[in-house]
Design a protein that fits this description.
eight-stranded antiparallel beta barrel, 2 domains, 1 helix
Length: 182
């Protein structure tokens, strides 16, 4: 299963939650929350289809001066990953060459002096929940030695690549979670 994504079966109705105890696993588009000394609005929600009726969700969080993407994985415990888009061209050009020639990026990537190790590869389909059509893609996630920093590479189509970088956070790093749209 891909890093930091909240795995669940496809939702058939709106999520139900205890309004007196809203958790990070309850958030959806239109919520607000506090993280990293800022208030963020959940501006978009994305759905990932991994096959076998496994779906996951990611959220675009917007503050006054920043944009991040939050994914939440709930297994034995809740793990949150916050990433920011990274210009793919800032990575070593050998990464793209490896994907095109070998079908996957190298096992290790060094970015800003940190060594990241490939941890997984996942093919799936992506859509903004506002849309009905899914787009196929492949994702590779990398972690540093501490397994607290993450680097993600995505391939969309034959030669369209994206990257993001971020960190693994605790559920307790998110607070004051409230729905603002009903």
């Amino acid at each position: 299963m891909p890093f930091g994504f909240f795995k669940k079966n496809k939702k058939e109705e709106e999520p139900h939650y205890d309004p007196t105890n809203i958790k990070v696993t309850d958030i959806r588009k239109g919520f607000v929350l506090d993280y990293d000394l800022k208030t963020w609005e959940v501006q978009d929600e994305y759905e990932y289809d991994w096959g076998d009726n496994n779906f996951s969700y990611e959220f675009k969080l917007v503050s006054a001066d920043d944009v991040v993407f939050l994914s939440v994985e709930e297994d034995d415990f809740v793990e949150c990953t916050v990433t920011r888009k990274l210009n793919f061209n800032k990575l070593d050009e050998e990464i793209e060459e490896a994907i095109l020639s070998k079908g996957k990026p190298p096992r290790q990537i060094i970015y800003n002096g940190t060594v990241f190790y490939r941890d997984g590869e996942h093919a799936g389909y992506f859509r903004n929940i506002k849309d009905t059509s899914f787009q196929p893609f492949v994702s590779w996630e990398y972690y540093d030695d501490s397994e607290k920093q993450v680097l993600v590479i995505e391939q969309w189509g034959d030669e369209d690549f994206e990257a993001s970088i971020g960190k693994v956070e605790s559920e307790s790093d998110f607070s004051n979670i409230l729905p603002i749209e009903m």
